[in-house]
Amino acid sequence: MGKVQLHVGIIGAGLGGLAAAISIARAGHKVTILEQAPALGEVGAGIQIPPNSTRILSRWGLLPAIEKVSVRPQNFILRSYRDGRILSTQALIPHCESVYGYPYLHIHRADYHKILVDEAERLGVEIRLGSIVTDIDFELPAVHIKNCPEPFTANLIIGADGLKSVCREALLGRPDPPHLTGDLAYRIIVPADSMKSHPLLRDLVAVPNINYWMGPDSHVVSYLLQGGNLYNIVIACPDNLPELVNQQKADLDEMHALFQNWDPQLRALLELCKDTSKWRLQNSREMPSWNHPSGRFTLLGDACHATLPYLAQGAAQAVEDGAVLGHLFEKIESRSQVPDLLVIYESVRKPRTTRVVNGSSQLGREIFHLHDGPRQRERDRQLLAWQADPF
Ligand code: FAD
């Protein structure tokens, strides 16, 4: 029996939807992406690409383009909040290559997104901008688009429409707002040049490392981006945003007040911030299923497993979802196999992404955000012991 070509509709051109489009187009299928935004783009911030993603990006031939605009961190460093004392240094080079076979990278989101868009378009994926999906008829399947008289139809629809997914709510048949985690994030980018001559900050840019400061209820992650020209800072701290506001311009005095008792090096770093916003961090409750019983619809990425970013795995898991879908649809011989392949997709992916969502929350609660006291002292003791004898 010969291979059948499917027409696959993907809702959402985020990192997850694009990864799925590339993977499914590489498997020989026709792919159309419906994206609500009038223009393509990503948030102006950095993102960590761990080896489970670089493995897939390498298979797709995209690693050289990604590496060209990335920074390869040498060490993963955990520090105490009060004085910046190093509690643990894990050498990512050569650890990632020798254990996983692929590098750990830092990239600007806009660069990552553009590389995926270019590759999707090179493979013939059609991206329809300004297509705001309002509802889905799962049986046909057909997608209803705002101001569009004709619904969009395809053999399979994939909902990759992120945290506030219309697709997830349509599948559940009820409102399902994202789950509040109690935390929010400040995202900051500063020019690395401003750090190079600063007596307290030059160490941070001398070597490309990932630096974490861990303190009560909060932590800070920082790393170099874009050939070492930019320095990316993410602060995670308790959520104090008004009830219905998910993002707000930050008051810098309020931000500095949070860190008044923290390491002077970190305080000097935050002094470089001229302007930022704070974003509510939300995640997902595990769904009973990502698939519709019709066997013609599934979900991926933040639409079904949004996570706190503490393991740096949200986009990485969405890329894995896309890779698995493409792999499953590589040798499909008949459209009647689609429902069974979606069952396999969910059974492979859902337990792993649930572990990531729960693991990220646990990492915040039980490691990063401990208050001073016996548990924090035991954490620090174990990290220091591990630092002395890591593997
Ligand atoms: P999204 O990026 O949300 O994309 C959804 C797309 O769907 C958007 O383009 C949107 O416009 C479109 N859309 C939405 N609704 C509709 C509609 N009705 N019709 C049509 N289109 C629609 N992950 C990592 O792997 N590493 C990290 O270091 C990392 N750091 C992070 C730091 C922070 C502070 C945060 C908040 C997250 C971080 N993540 C990280 C997580 C990562 O950003 C997300 O998991 C990832 O971007 C999700 O991709 P997605 O494609 O599933 O969803």
Give a brief rundown of this model:
The protein is α/β, with parallel strands linked by helices. The chain is 37% helix and 26% strand.
What does this structure look like?
By secondary structure, this protein is of the alpha/beta class. The chain is 37% helix and 26% strand. The chain contains 14 helices and 19 strands. It has helices at residues 15-26, 51-59, 63-68, 92-100, 109-122, 166-172, 193-196, 202-206, 252-258, 264-271, 302-305, 314-328, 338-368, 374-388; strands spanning 7-11, 30-34, 46-49, 70-71, 75-80, 86-91, 105-108, 126-128, 133-137, 142-145, 152-153, 156-159, 179-191, 209-215, 218-225, 230-238, 247-249, 277-283, 297-299. The strands form four sheets. It has an eight-stranded mixed sheet. A five-stranded parallel sheet has the order 8-2-1-12-19. α1 packs parallel to α5 (109-122), α1 (15-26) packs parallel to α12 (314-328) and α12 runs antiparallel to α13 (338-368). The protein is globular and about 60 Å long. The model has no long low-confidence stretch (mean pLDDT 96). It binds flavin-adenine dinucleotide (FAD). Flavin-adenine dinucleotide is lined by residues 11-17, 34-37, 47-48, 131-133, 160-163, 166, 185, 187, 234, 279, 301-303, 309, 312-316, 318.
